[in-house]
Design goal:
Layout: H1 9-30, H2 38-50, E1 54-57, H3 64-74, E2 75-76, E3 79-83, H4 90-94, E4 95-101, E5 107-113, E6 120-124, H5 131-143, E7 145-148, E8 151-154, E9 160-165, H6 178-181, E10 186-189, H7 195-205, E11 217-218, H8 219-231, H9 236-247, H10 258-263, E12 264-266, H11 270-286, H12 294-305, E13 310-311, H13 313-317, H14 322-332
């Protein structure tokens, strides 16, 4: 893909300001109901503007579903929630052909849309569904379309999937395969709240006051923001830094550390570099800049790459933490000189 046409300084500044305004409006609205976890909220909003999908992982009760539902309320978009269970079938997601009686007599087959044909999808506890059902989401997530019988149906734009999963329970769960994990732009770990955040949760959920979430953005505005994100220029120096960062996760590459060579079976795919650049562009815009720096790439490296590093037997036996491994890679990789 060719580099976007260079914007004038005044226009670039205005677009960066517009992006910040949209980002901050959504962040403020989400925090009316969702307490704390600023880094998680900012990452989810960054993925929304980057035209990607999010995987949220955390134990029950930390607000993963609340975050997705609140963001959906803040957007004037069609919303669908799919509760994944072991008995969920692919047709329950994408839809099926249904026999209808015609007015003049006789019958005809009509397509009845499934919940995935929407703008905003919450795939709740996605690891509870069987691999067959999980794969039904694969085409929608990657190709933005579903195929039923002989029909191919394009999904509406903008389109985003926020999937949640519980890392603790193992009974009745089916871990996502690497091919499906790779289709999520980021994997975010939702941790326990801080002490003051617990108090904020109590104030908002155990009293008589109820948070009212208002739509503060729309589909056309999100599509416009996505266009602005893609128009942010990235110098060759930053591109090469991002490429080397991804290559450093791959064993036996020229940039791999000793730990990667010993403890990693598979590193990041090319989707990793695409996600690093797009997330870096959003990071630059919300910082008021219309150019990506190496620091922007470093800031998003862990959520973008943590689910794209597959540990070897040695890595598992040594209990290597993928997050710490990525931080080690970032620390070892030097910026390129001009």
């Amino acid at each position: 893909m060719s580099e976007a046409v260079q914007e004038s300084p005044a226009n670039a500044q205005e677009q960066a300001r517009d992006s910040c305004n949209v980002f901050n409006k959504l962040k403020t609205e989400v925090h009316k109901a969702f307490v704390g976890q600023d880094e998680i909220v900012e990452s989810v909003l960054s993925v929304l503007l980057s035209d990607g999908h999010v995987l949220l992982e955390g134990v029950p009760g930390l607000g993963k579903t609340l975050l997705a539902h609140t963001l959906a309320q803040a957007l004037h978009l069609d919303f669908s929630r799919i509760q994944f269970t072991p008995d969920l079938m692919p047709a329950d997601i994408v839809g099926t052909m249904v026999l209808h009686e015609k007015e003049g007599g006789g019958h005809e087959l009509r397509f009845q849309e499934g919940p995935v044909i929407s703008n905003f999808i919450l795939a709740d506890e996605i690891n509870r569904a069987t691999p067959k059902t999980q794969s039904a989401m694969l085409e929608a997530v990657q190709e933005r379309q579903v195929s039923v019988a002989r029909q191919t149906i394009r999904l509406p734009e903008p389109f985003i999937v926020i999937a949640t999963q519980n890392p603790v329970e193992q009974d009745g769960t089916y871990p996502l395969p690497e091919a499906q994990l790779d289709r999520f732009m980021v994997k975010l770990m939702v941790n326990y709240p801080a002490e003051e955040e617990y108090l904020g949760i109590l104030r908002r959920t155990t009293g008589t006051a109820k948070s009212v979430i208002e739509p503060v953005s729309s589909g056309p505005e999100i599509m416009r923001m996505r266009h602005i994100v893609r128009s942010v220029p990235v110098s060759e120096q930053v591109q090469r830094y991002a490429v080397r960062l991804v290559m450093a996760t791959q064993p036996k590459s020229p940039y791999a550390t000793a730990t990667v060579n010993r403890a990693v079976a598979l590193g990041s795919s090319p989707r990793g570099i695409q996600s690093l650049i797009l997330m870096g562009k959003v990071r630059a815009l919300i910082s008021g800049r219309f150019a990506v720096s190496c620091q922007d790439i470093r800031d998003v490296a862990v959520p973008v790459l943590r689910h794209r590093v597959m540990l070897s037997f040695e890595g598992f036996s040594e209990r290597i933490n993928p997050d710490e491994l990525i931080r080690e890679i970032v620390k070892s990789l030097k910026e390129l000189s001009d």
